[in-house]
Design goal:
The complex is a heterotrimer of chains A (about 220), B (about 150) and C (about 240). The longest helix of chain B has 28 residues. Chain B has a five-stranded mixed barrel with strand order 1-3-4-6-5. Chain B is built from three helices and six strands; from the N terminus they run ααββββββα. In chain B, β2 and β3 form a beta hairpin. With about 150 residues, chain B is of the alpha+beta class. In chain B, about 30% of the residues lie in helices and about 30% in strands. Chain C contains eight helices and no strands. Classes of the chains: A mainly alpha (about 220), B alpha+beta (about 150), C mainly alpha (about 240).
Chain lengths: ~220, ~150, ~240
């Protein structure tokens, strides 16, 4: 447990220190939102209607671009081999790495969401449901992202492949995430059934991806 | 903790997470994520939904009224077992649109009436030749819209 | 199954089976199409347009079956390390993607006159579209990794994780109020489709299945031949090493 915490802390620290990698994701997120807003035009009603889908989509795109960082650097400098040899359950190591990715990449995006929501004219009562849906749903992105990053481990310049692999698996998160945010804004109890499906997806990710990620790491390193 | 205890803890965690996930999915499916509202759903809503909504149900028999001389302006009523909602639509109707048919309309809800921008006909899972359908109806064994 | 573990024995069998399966597929398709186009009634609601069903529904069945085949082959490859398992999985993917594409296109053509739209974002349509992208991702993963043994294992993981989509597709029409109609053939309480329409549908289903089997054998042989060439090239490039080994 202690060692897993150490892996987690190391990954988070590295993400914030090395060239502002994690902060780049926030910049990318903000720019994508701005581009969407400019493309849609100045119609306030349409913008505020599209705010939840835009923010969810932009967060997913930003996450997708960062997935190859989850394991690639450790693979290249050999520290991944050390982790494999360390005797910790590799699935749990994968879980720790996915959690670190969430904290270092997606949590900053969620924290940036209120500011961008302001630009999009998100109504005041819609902030909490949107952010809640992101907090519950985005861990699934990190989990499946870690898996894709492990699958593409032996490849250089894998970000396009990782996007192709993760996009179909992550669409349900966007669908249910936006549906939950909208249901919450509408005032449905418990943000409607969409939030439950979103939570189920994150839990399904917790259940399935660590073992699959560990297996993929092994196949790609032996 | 010994290795064995750790392993037990892990198994318990996996089983626990799986159970919670399954429970969530089952509860969520019970309350059906709808592609559309039904008229009774609309009646039960406390607030009028903003923006585009989808409404699904059967076209009430005798309710289809075209604007005079025009085939592309139509008013009709969508009903389910318990409630009815009026719909106005300008545009081309799909081939399957007729009274008693299941349809889904998309549009804005204003004063309890849906101003539809799109009308889609839903067909059911029953496939049979016309003669069979007529014979079944004649014998009173089956009505359109239900499973035989 | 273990007799087939030897690729040469498999090849012999495949060479003999391929023409038989192709002919059987052709004949069944002819019969099926004859029934579907000329010798089956128009639907009481949909009229003549219902005939699109005979090419659409079997394509959708095959889309699901091909992915299931891939998932089973991937599982077999993991557990029993059967040498043909990953060849099967890899060769199935493009065929499955083609069937999925066919199901989407014919569904779209059917949807326009019936529903009044080419496409709707309802649960069934969306989940089948996702299936199509899963196929593409699987194919992309195979082609990205050069080492075949590694690619086989890694792609198998991707395939198995994506399998969750298959029950979602099957039950999407029951779980959600969808535009797409519920199941007519594989459902509790028997088919809700009249015998005169069920016969051509099943004939077309068999024809599609036989086509899949014939295509699979051909593309598996191609894959085996490709691997043999790769091996030969490798040993030609490093003859001394090959001799030592």
């Amino acid at each position: 447990m202690k060692r897993l915490m150490a892996i987690f802390e190391r990954d988070v620290t590295l993400a914030f220190r090395t060239g502002g990698g994690a902060l780049n994701s926030v910049a990318f997120f903000a720019l994508t939102v701005v581009i969407f807003a400019l493309a849609i035009g100045p119609d306030r009603a349409r913008l505020s209607e599209s705010a939840a889908p835009i923010l969810w989509t932009a967060a997913t795109l930003a996450a997708m671009l960062s997935f190859d960082r989850i394991l690639q650097a450790d693979f290249e400098d050999g520290s991944l081999d050390a982790l494999i040899e360390s005797g910790d359950l590799l699935s749990l190591v994968a879980l720790a790495k996915a959690s670190a990715h969430w904290v270092s990449t997606l949590l900053p995006l969620i924290l940036a969401t209120p500011v961008l929501g302001l630009l999009l004219g998100l109504p005041a009562h819609a902030y909490f449901p949107l952010m809640a849906s992101m907090v519950i749903g985005t861990p699934a992105l990190s989990l499946f992202g870690a898996l894709a990053s492990a699958l593409a481990l032996s490849l250089r310049r894998a970000s396009m492949l990782i996007t192709i692999l993760t996009a179909p698996l992550l669409t349900p998160a966007i669908i249910f995430g936006v549906a939950a945010a909208n249901a919450g804004a509408r005032g449905d109890a418990l943000f409607g059934p969409a939030l439950m499906l979103l939570a189920a997806m994150t839990l399904f990710g917790v259940l399935v991806t660590p073992a699959a990620t560990a297996a993929a790491i092994r196949f790609n390193t032996d | 903790m010994t290795k064995r205890e750790k392993r037990l803890l892990l198994v318990a965690a996996v089983v626990g997470v799986a159970a919670v996930a399954a429970a969530l999915v089952l509860t969520a499916l019970n309350s059906a994520v709808a592609y559309f509202y039904t008229p009774s759903d609309l009646q039960k809503l406390e607030k009028t939904p903003v923006g585009l909504i989808r409404l699904g149900g059967l076209v009430a028999p005798g309710s289809v009224k075209f604007a005079e001389g025009r085939e592309t302006e139509v008013n009709f009523v969508i009903k389910d077992e318990f409630a009815e909602t009026a719909v106005s639509y300008k545009g081309v109707l799909p081939d399957l649109f007729r009274e008693g048919q299941g349809v889904i309309v998309q549009g804005k809800l204003e004063n309890g009436r849906v101003l539809a921008s799109e009308v889609l006909a839903k067909h059911d899972e029953n496939y049979m030749p016309k003669e069979v359908a007529d014979a079944l109806k004649e014998q009173g064994r089956w009505k359109e819209g239900e499973t035989p | 199954m273990h007799n087939l573990a030897n690729p040469q024995r498999f090849e012999k069998l495949a060479i003999r089976l391929t023409p038989l399966l192709s002919i059987a597929a052709g004949v069944t398709a002819l019969f099926g199409l004859y029934y579907a186009l000329f010798n089956s009634p128009a639907d009481y609601q949909q009229g003549e347009s219902v005939r699109i069903m005979y090419v659409h529904v079997p394509a959708a069945w095959m889309a699901l079956m091909c992915y299931s085949t891939m998932a089973i082959a991937s599982g077999v490859g993991f557990i029993w390390k059967h040498p043909l398992a990953d060849v099967t999985a890899k060769s199935t993917a493009p065929i499955g993607a083609a069937f999925t594409f066919l199901a989407l296109v014919t569904g779209s053509i059917w949807g326009k006159p019936m529903w009044g739209t080419w496409w709707a974002w309802d649960a069934r349509l969306t989940s089948v579209l996702i299936l199509f992208f899963l196929y593409l991702g699987y194919i992309a993963l195979w082609s990205a990794i050069d080492d075949k043994t590694r690619a086989a294992k890694v792609a198998a993981i991707a395939c198995l994780v994506g399998f969750i989509n298959i029950p979602i597709i099957k039950f999407s029409v029951d779980w959600w109020n969808s535009l797409h109609q519920p199941a007519s053939v594989l459902r509790g309480g028997g088919p809700t489709i009249h015998q005169s329409m069920l016969t051509p549908l099943l004939l077309m289903g068999i024809a599609y299945g036989l086509t899949f089997a014939a295509l699979l054998l051909i593309s598996m042989r191609a894959e085996l031949a490709e691997r043999r060439i790769a091996r030969l090239e490798q040993s030609a490039r490093a003859p001394s090493k090959a001799m030592i080994l």
